[in-house]
Amino acid sequence: MEFTKTLLVTGGAGFIGSHVVRRLVINYPEYLILNIDKLTYAGNLNNLKDIENKSNYKFFQIDITDKKAIDEIFKLYSVDGVIHLAAESHVDRSISNPDEFILTNVVGTLHLLNACKSSWSDFNGKCFYHISTDEVYGSLGDDGLFTEETSYDPRSPYSASKASSDHIVRAYGHTYNLPIKISNCSNNYGSFQFPEKLIPLMINNIKNKKSLPIYGKGENVRDWLWVVDHAIAIDLIYHEGVIGETYNIGGHNEWKNVDLVHLLCDVMDEKLHRPIGDSRKLITYVKDRAGHDMRYAIDASKIKNELGWEPSVTFEEGLRSTVDWYLSNEKWLDDVTSGAYQRYYKEHYSQ
Ligand code: NAD
Ligand code: TYD
To answer: Does residue 228 share a domain with residue 217?
Structure first.
């Protein structure tokens, strides 16, 4: 079959990337979707089992810091668009091992930009879409929201690496007229999320009656968005967003960590037929994260007003469906929590 477009997704075997790839492969059978991913601890081809044999989908195990391999892919395929999600994504790991974050998130992004710039003879119909985070804006006090105009103030090695890559992407747009788009999204949750992040980590620990480590006093606030709604927003921005623009994506759904963990405990007690209140007893307050940002919250009015995007589910609905997914995908959870995860967990949480 002749495909109308070739779209290259990076990091498509990760949490958000797998939802994006799935959506594109299913909704756009006329596109060829190339997924390039290094398959780090966070990348997992089991996240894509349901679409791996589709005729409009191809996977390549490639490290984006490998310039030769990136250039090769651009020689092999006439790529029309890139949706760039590949990244080291966990703040705690960026604190203990920042180098990997600079290499993948900054240098890897540079290689992709250069490949687009040199292989696209004209920029008509082309697009480099960079997926970023609200953490680039720093930390909020009790009031206010991040808008697209908020100044950058990254404070962790992770957010600094994402901020650097955002700046480089914008610089390529400004200097070389490369057709770029950027979106900055709040915290995601949902199926296939690696259980190092708050929600799946707590689900896994509640399930196994392990202690629930809350950093500091648990008063830090995050704005949670269901991953499928992020994937819908990415699809919309890729197809209808304006070249050169930035879009903030968020759920208008702020939760203090401790309140969120309480809710999760209660939902899981109900689902696991335990007495309500049982799992809350597992909560332990542990040493705070170094440089822990207090509050993130997104003003998502631009994407709502200009592209008509809004979250499709309430938090309660999204959280319940997420818990159901983890409870009915025990094998997935067991596979990703064996071996290296155990070593990471012991090392990180014994401090
Ligand atoms: P993730 O850690 O689950 O997945 C990252 C993927 O990138 C993995 O499949 C991994 O194998 C791949 N990868 C890592 N290094 C690579 C390399 N050098 N070459 C090729 N592939 C590599 O991350 P995620 O949560 O799905 O995040 C995806 C993107 O969205 C990231 O850019 C992240 O900064 C951004 N983001 C995440 C969130 C969130 O809440 N998780 C929120 C906003 C933005
Ligand atoms: P996380 O899921 O790591 O996302 P991010 O740091 O990118 O926002 O953490 C979400 C919040 O939960 C953050 O304030 C840190 C806190 N947290 C804990 O209290 N305990 C944990 O074990 C983890 C992983 C996170």
So the answer is: no
Maximum distance among all Cα pairs of the chain, rounded to whole angstroms: 64
CA 239 remoteness from chain centre: 19
Same domain, 180 and 128: yes
What does each C-alpha distance from 224 to 85, 181, 297, 337 come to in angstroms?
18, 23, 9, 23
Q: Report which residue type is found at 23.
A: R
Tell me, yes or no, whether 133 and 165 share the same domain.
yes
Ligand 1 contact via 43 beta carbon (within 6 Å): yes
Residue 351 has pLDDT above 90, yes or no: no
Say if 95 falls within a structural domain: yes
Contacts of 35 (CB under 8 A, 6+ apart): 9, 12, 13, 17, 21, 48, 57, 58, 59, 60
Q: Which of 31, 129, 137, 158 is catalytic?
A: 158
Q: Establish whether 245 is a catalytic residue.
A: no
**Ligand showing the shortest atom-to-Cα distance for residue 133:** 1
Please state, as a whole number, how many other Cβ atoms lie within 10 Å of the Cβ of residue 197: 18
Q: In this structure, are 146 and 212 located in the same domain?
A: no
134 is catalytic: yes
* CA 215 to ligand 1 centroid distance, Å: 23
Do β-strands 221-226 and 254-256 pair in parallel, antiparallel, or remain unpaired?
antiparallel
153 in active site: no
Residue 304 counted as domain residue: no
* pTM for the model: 0.99
List, in sequence order, every beta strand (DSSP E) within the chain: 5-10, 31-37, 57-61, 81-84, 127-133, 180-185, 187-189, 212-215, 221-226, 246-249, 254-256, 283-286
Q: For 148-215, where are the alpha helices, taking DSSP H only? A: 157-176, 198-207
**Ligand 1 pocket: which of 8, 9, 10, 16 to mutate (most atoms within 8 A of CB):** 16
User: Tens digit of pLDDT for each residue in 80-108?
Assistant: 999 999 999 999 999 999 999 999 999 99
Query: Which residues are CB-neighbours of 209 under 8 A, at least 6 positions away?
Result: 279, 282
Are 155 and 273 members of one domain? no
